[in-house]
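Lab notebook: predicted structure, single chain.

Context: the supervisor wants predicted structures on file for every construct in the current expression panel, including those that have not yet been purified. This is the next one on the list. No modifications to the sequence; it matches the entry in the shared construct table.
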Amino acid sequence: MIGKQALNNFQEVMWPKILNWYRKLSSPKKASDKKRRPQWEVDNDLLDYPPLGLFEDYLEMVIQYGFITIFAAAFPLAPLFALFNNVIEIRLDAYKLVTQWKRPVSCRAQDIGIWYGILKGITYIGIITNGFIIGWTSDFIPKMVYKYSFSEDNSLAGYVNSSLSYFNVSEFQKESNIPKQDFIEGYGTVSICRYSDYREPPWSENKYEYTSLYWHVFCARLAFVILFEHLVLFLTWFVSYMIPPIPGDIQLLVLRELYLAKEARYKVSFDTLDDERSQVRQRKVTTEVPDEMPEYSSAVLA
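Prediction complete. Output recorded below exactly as produced.
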Protein backbone atom coordinates (compact mmCIF):
# COMPACT_ATOMS: atom_id res chain seq x y z
CA MET A 1 0.00 0.00 0.00
CA ILE A 2 2.84 2.39 0.85
CA GLY A 3 4.63 1.81 -2.44
CA LYS A 4 1.45 2.22 -4.46
CA GLN A 5 0.60 5.51 -2.75
CA ALA A 6 4.12 6.86 -3.30
CA LEU A 7 4.01 5.84 -6.97
CA ASN A 8 0.62 7.53 -7.42
CA ASN A 9 1.87 10.75 -5.84
CA PHE A 10 4.94 10.77 -8.06
CA GLN A 11 2.84 10.10 -11.15
CA GLU A 12 0.26 12.78 -10.32
CA VAL A 13 2.93 15.47 -10.03
CA MET A 14 5.57 14.48 -12.57
CA TRP A 15 3.35 13.37 -15.45
CA PRO A 16 1.59 16.77 -15.89
CA LYS A 17 4.97 18.46 -15.46
CA ILE A 18 6.49 16.36 -18.26
CA LEU A 19 3.52 17.02 -20.56
CA ASN A 20 3.71 20.78 -19.96
CA TRP A 21 7.44 20.74 -20.61
CA TYR A 22 6.92 18.82 -23.87
CA ARG A 23 4.20 21.21 -25.03
CA LYS A 24 6.44 24.13 -24.28
CA LEU A 25 9.26 22.66 -26.36
CA SER A 26 7.04 21.62 -29.26
CA SER A 27 5.16 24.93 -29.55
CA PRO A 28 6.65 27.44 -32.10
CA LYS A 29 8.56 30.28 -30.52
CA LYS A 30 7.91 33.90 -31.41
CA ALA A 31 9.88 37.04 -30.87
CA SER A 32 7.24 38.26 -28.49
CA ASP A 33 7.80 35.23 -26.27
CA LYS A 34 11.04 36.72 -25.04
CA LYS A 35 9.07 39.41 -23.28
CA ARG A 36 7.25 38.76 -20.09
CA ARG A 37 3.77 37.49 -20.91
CA PRO A 38 0.74 38.13 -18.73
CA GLN A 39 -0.27 35.40 -16.35
CA TRP A 40 -3.45 34.51 -18.22
CA GLU A 41 -1.41 33.68 -21.33
CA VAL A 42 0.94 31.50 -19.30
CA ASP A 43 -2.02 29.68 -17.71
CA ASN A 44 -3.57 29.11 -21.12
CA ASP A 45 -0.61 26.90 -22.07
CA LEU A 46 -1.18 24.54 -19.14
CA LEU A 47 -2.92 21.18 -19.40
CA ASP A 48 -6.68 21.05 -19.53
CA TYR A 49 -8.47 19.85 -16.43
CA PRO A 50 -9.33 16.12 -16.71
CA PRO A 51 -12.81 15.48 -18.13
CA LEU A 52 -13.68 13.22 -15.18
CA GLY A 53 -12.82 15.96 -12.70
CA LEU A 54 -12.13 14.66 -9.21
CA PHE A 55 -13.06 11.07 -10.04
CA GLU A 56 -9.47 9.80 -9.87
CA ASP A 57 -8.82 11.58 -6.57
CA TYR A 58 -12.02 10.22 -5.03
CA LEU A 59 -11.23 6.73 -6.32
CA GLU A 60 -7.73 6.86 -4.80
CA MET A 61 -9.08 7.90 -1.41
CA VAL A 62 -11.83 5.25 -1.47
CA ILE A 63 -9.32 2.49 -2.30
CA GLN A 64 -7.05 3.68 0.50
CA TYR A 65 -10.00 3.74 2.91
CA GLY A 66 -10.85 0.19 1.89
CA PHE A 67 -7.32 -0.99 2.65
CA ILE A 68 -7.16 0.60 6.10
CA THR A 69 -10.65 -0.54 7.19
CA ILE A 70 -11.07 -4.00 5.71
CA PHE A 71 -7.58 -5.16 6.73
CA ALA A 72 -7.03 -3.04 9.83
CA ALA A 73 -6.66 -6.09 12.09
CA ALA A 74 -4.15 -7.69 9.71
CA PHE A 75 -1.96 -4.55 9.45
CA PRO A 76 -2.66 -2.09 12.31
CA LEU A 77 -0.05 0.41 11.07
CA ALA A 78 -1.97 1.02 7.81
CA PRO A 79 -3.98 4.03 9.17
CA LEU A 80 -0.75 5.70 10.35
CA PHE A 81 0.93 5.35 6.95
CA ALA A 82 -2.28 6.55 5.26
CA LEU A 83 -2.22 9.66 7.46
CA PHE A 84 1.37 10.44 6.47
CA ASN A 85 0.53 9.90 2.82
CA ASN A 86 -2.53 12.18 2.94
CA VAL A 87 -0.62 15.00 4.64
CA ILE A 88 1.89 14.93 1.78
CA GLU A 89 -0.74 14.46 -0.91
CA ILE A 90 -2.66 17.56 0.19
CA ARG A 91 0.29 19.76 -0.71
CA LEU A 92 1.05 17.82 -3.90
CA ASP A 93 -2.55 18.17 -5.13
CA ALA A 94 -2.48 21.89 -4.34
CA TYR A 95 0.75 22.29 -6.33
CA LYS A 96 -0.72 20.30 -9.22
CA LEU A 97 -3.95 22.32 -9.36
CA VAL A 98 -2.21 25.68 -9.11
CA THR A 99 0.81 25.24 -11.37
CA GLN A 100 0.17 22.34 -13.78
CA TRP A 101 -3.51 22.47 -14.76
CA LYS A 102 -5.83 25.15 -16.00
CA ARG A 103 -8.30 26.49 -13.52
CA PRO A 104 -11.25 24.08 -13.33
CA VAL A 105 -14.79 25.28 -13.81
CA SER A 106 -16.52 25.37 -10.45
CA CYS A 107 -19.92 23.80 -9.90
CA ARG A 108 -22.15 23.53 -6.87
CA ALA A 109 -22.67 20.21 -5.10
CA GLN A 110 -24.67 19.33 -2.03
CA ASP A 111 -22.33 16.55 -0.88
CA ILE A 112 -19.89 13.97 -2.27
CA GLY A 113 -22.72 12.08 -3.95
CA ILE A 114 -22.52 8.33 -4.50
CA TRP A 115 -19.10 8.18 -2.86
CA TYR A 116 -20.75 8.49 0.56
CA GLY A 117 -22.75 5.32 -0.03
CA ILE A 118 -19.62 3.51 -1.24
CA LEU A 119 -17.67 4.55 1.87
CA LYS A 120 -20.56 3.45 4.09
CA GLY A 121 -20.66 0.05 2.39
CA ILE A 122 -16.89 -0.37 2.79
CA THR A 123 -17.28 0.45 6.48
CA TYR A 124 -19.82 -2.34 6.99
CA ILE A 125 -17.66 -4.80 5.05
CA GLY A 126 -14.64 -3.78 7.14
CA ILE A 127 -16.51 -4.42 10.39
CA ILE A 128 -17.46 -7.96 9.35
CA THR A 129 -14.01 -8.71 7.89
CA ASN A 130 -12.14 -7.56 10.99
CA GLY A 131 -14.50 -9.54 13.20
CA PHE A 132 -13.73 -12.73 11.27
CA ILE A 133 -10.00 -11.99 11.20
CA ILE A 134 -9.86 -11.49 14.98
CA GLY A 135 -12.12 -14.46 15.71
CA TRP A 136 -10.52 -16.99 13.34
CA THR A 137 -6.83 -16.08 13.32
CA SER A 138 -6.17 -15.32 16.99
CA ASP A 139 -5.97 -17.71 19.94
CA PHE A 140 -8.09 -15.47 22.14
CA ILE A 141 -11.37 -17.35 21.58
CA PRO A 142 -9.95 -20.91 21.93
CA LYS A 143 -8.16 -19.93 25.13
CA MET A 144 -11.30 -18.45 26.66
CA VAL A 145 -13.36 -21.52 25.68
CA TYR A 146 -10.81 -23.92 27.18
CA LYS A 147 -10.38 -21.81 30.32
CA TYR A 148 -14.07 -21.50 31.22
CA SER A 149 -15.50 -24.70 29.71
CA PHE A 150 -12.89 -27.48 29.79
CA SER A 151 -10.29 -26.48 32.39
CA GLU A 152 -10.83 -27.92 35.87
CA ASP A 153 -9.26 -24.96 37.70
CA ASN A 154 -10.21 -22.18 35.19
CA SER A 155 -6.62 -21.79 34.04
CA LEU A 156 -4.75 -22.33 30.78
CA ALA A 157 -2.83 -25.32 32.12
CA GLY A 158 -3.05 -28.02 29.46
CA TYR A 159 -4.30 -25.68 26.71
CA VAL A 160 -1.46 -26.48 24.31
CA ASN A 161 -2.01 -30.22 24.70
CA SER A 162 -5.75 -29.82 24.05
CA SER A 163 -5.14 -27.75 20.90
CA LEU A 164 -2.94 -30.47 19.30
CA SER A 165 -4.31 -33.59 17.65
CA TYR A 166 -2.67 -36.98 17.04
CA PHE A 167 -1.80 -38.51 13.67
CA ASN A 168 -0.43 -41.95 12.82
CA VAL A 169 2.60 -41.47 10.57
CA SER A 170 1.99 -44.83 8.91
CA GLU A 171 -1.12 -43.35 7.30
CA PHE A 172 0.74 -40.77 5.28
CA GLN A 173 -0.02 -40.95 1.58
CA LYS A 174 2.57 -42.48 -0.68
CA GLU A 175 2.94 -39.21 -2.57
CA SER A 176 4.21 -37.52 0.59
CA ASN A 177 8.00 -37.38 0.79
CA ILE A 178 8.17 -38.82 4.29
CA PRO A 179 11.24 -40.82 5.38
CA LYS A 180 10.46 -44.54 5.43
CA GLN A 181 12.49 -45.26 8.54
CA ASP A 182 10.69 -44.81 11.83
CA PHE A 183 13.83 -43.95 13.78
CA ILE A 184 14.80 -40.26 13.74
CA GLU A 185 17.94 -39.09 15.45
CA GLY A 186 17.12 -37.02 18.50
CA TYR A 187 13.54 -38.28 18.67
CA GLY A 188 13.86 -42.04 18.49
CA THR A 189 11.15 -44.18 16.92
CA VAL A 190 8.33 -41.93 15.72
CA SER A 191 4.90 -43.47 15.17
CA ILE A 192 2.65 -40.58 16.20
CA CYS A 193 2.95 -36.86 15.38
CA ARG A 194 1.00 -33.86 16.70
CA TYR A 195 -0.57 -31.06 14.69
CA SER A 196 -2.71 -28.04 15.50
CA ASP A 197 -6.37 -29.04 15.17
CA TYR A 198 -9.31 -30.40 17.16
CA ARG A 199 -9.76 -33.97 15.85
CA GLU A 200 -10.18 -37.42 17.32
CA PRO A 201 -7.01 -39.56 17.71
CA PRO A 202 -6.34 -42.49 15.34
CA TRP A 203 -7.23 -45.07 18.04
CA SER A 204 -10.73 -43.61 18.43
CA GLU A 205 -13.81 -45.10 16.80
CA ASN A 206 -14.43 -41.82 14.90
CA LYS A 207 -10.81 -41.14 14.13
CA TYR A 208 -9.81 -37.80 12.65
CA GLU A 209 -13.29 -36.35 13.08
CA TYR A 210 -13.91 -33.05 14.86
CA THR A 211 -14.10 -33.17 18.65
CA SER A 212 -16.63 -31.41 20.85
CA LEU A 213 -14.01 -28.77 21.68
CA TYR A 214 -13.89 -27.81 18.00
CA TRP A 215 -17.63 -27.14 17.87
CA HIS A 216 -17.47 -25.17 21.12
CA VAL A 217 -14.71 -23.00 19.66
CA PHE A 218 -16.56 -22.66 16.36
CA CYS A 219 -19.76 -21.46 18.03
CA ALA A 220 -17.82 -19.10 20.28
CA ARG A 221 -16.09 -17.57 17.25
CA LEU A 222 -19.42 -17.00 15.50
CA ALA A 223 -20.86 -15.45 18.66
CA PHE A 224 -17.82 -13.18 18.93
CA VAL A 225 -18.23 -12.00 15.31
CA ILE A 226 -21.91 -11.17 15.90
CA LEU A 227 -21.22 -9.34 19.17
CA PHE A 228 -18.24 -7.51 17.67
CA GLU A 229 -20.30 -6.41 14.66
CA HIS A 230 -23.20 -5.11 16.76
CA LEU A 231 -20.88 -3.35 19.20
CA VAL A 232 -18.95 -1.52 16.48
CA LEU A 233 -22.16 -0.59 14.64
CA PHE A 234 -23.57 0.80 17.88
CA LEU A 235 -20.39 2.82 18.46
CA THR A 236 -20.51 4.24 14.92
CA TRP A 237 -24.16 5.20 15.41
CA PHE A 238 -23.38 6.76 18.80
CA VAL A 239 -20.48 8.80 17.41
CA SER A 240 -22.57 10.00 14.45
CA TYR A 241 -25.36 10.92 16.88
CA MET A 242 -23.02 12.84 19.20
CA ILE A 243 -21.25 14.57 16.28
CA PRO A 244 -23.96 15.25 13.67
CA PRO A 245 -22.97 16.33 10.14
CA ILE A 246 -24.91 19.59 10.63
CA PRO A 247 -24.68 21.41 14.00
CA GLY A 248 -27.90 21.85 15.91
CA ASP A 249 -28.04 25.66 15.66
CA ILE A 250 -27.43 25.50 11.90
CA GLN A 251 -30.18 22.90 11.57
CA LEU A 252 -32.59 25.21 13.42
CA LEU A 253 -31.70 28.08 11.08
CA VAL A 254 -32.29 25.86 8.05
CA LEU A 255 -35.67 24.77 9.39
CA ARG A 256 -36.56 28.40 10.15
CA GLU A 257 -35.72 29.43 6.58
CA LEU A 258 -37.84 26.59 5.23
CA TYR A 259 -40.71 27.68 7.48
CA LEU A 260 -40.42 31.33 6.41
CA ALA A 261 -40.28 30.34 2.75
CA LYS A 262 -43.38 28.17 3.14
CA GLU A 263 -45.17 30.99 5.01
CA ALA A 264 -44.25 33.45 2.25
CA ARG A 265 -45.69 31.13 -0.38
CA TYR A 266 -48.90 30.76 1.61
CA LYS A 267 -49.15 34.53 2.00
CA VAL A 268 -48.70 35.11 -1.72
CA SER A 269 -51.31 32.48 -2.54
CA PHE A 270 -53.78 33.96 -0.01
CA ASP A 271 -53.19 37.50 -1.30
CA THR A 272 -53.78 36.31 -4.84
CA LEU A 273 -56.97 34.56 -3.76
CA ASP A 274 -58.20 37.70 -1.93
CA ASP A 275 -57.52 39.83 -5.00
CA GLU A 276 -59.47 37.44 -7.19
CA ARG A 277 -62.40 37.44 -4.74
CA SER A 278 -62.43 41.22 -4.51
CA GLN A 279 -62.45 41.47 -8.32
CA VAL A 280 -65.39 39.03 -8.48
CA ARG A 281 -67.33 41.05 -5.89
CA GLN A 282 -66.64 44.27 -7.75
CA ARG A 283 -67.95 42.76 -10.99
CA LYS A 284 -71.14 41.64 -9.25
CA VAL A 285 -71.74 45.11 -7.79
CA THR A 286 -71.27 46.83 -11.13
CA THR A 287 -73.73 44.47 -12.83
CA GLU A 288 -76.43 44.84 -10.14
CA VAL A 289 -76.39 48.70 -9.77
CA PRO A 290 -78.03 50.52 -12.82
CA ASP A 291 -76.21 53.27 -14.57
CA GLU A 292 -79.13 55.86 -14.21
CA MET A 293 -81.52 56.29 -11.33
CA PRO A 294 -85.29 56.08 -12.31
CA GLU A 295 -87.31 59.28 -12.31
CA TYR A 296 -90.21 59.37 -9.83
CA SER A 297 -93.19 61.75 -10.12
CA SER A 298 -93.83 64.38 -7.51
CA ALA A 299 -97.00 62.65 -6.48
CA VAL A 300 -95.20 59.46 -5.69
CA LEU A 301 -92.59 61.32 -3.78
CA ALA A 302 -95.33 63.11 -1.80
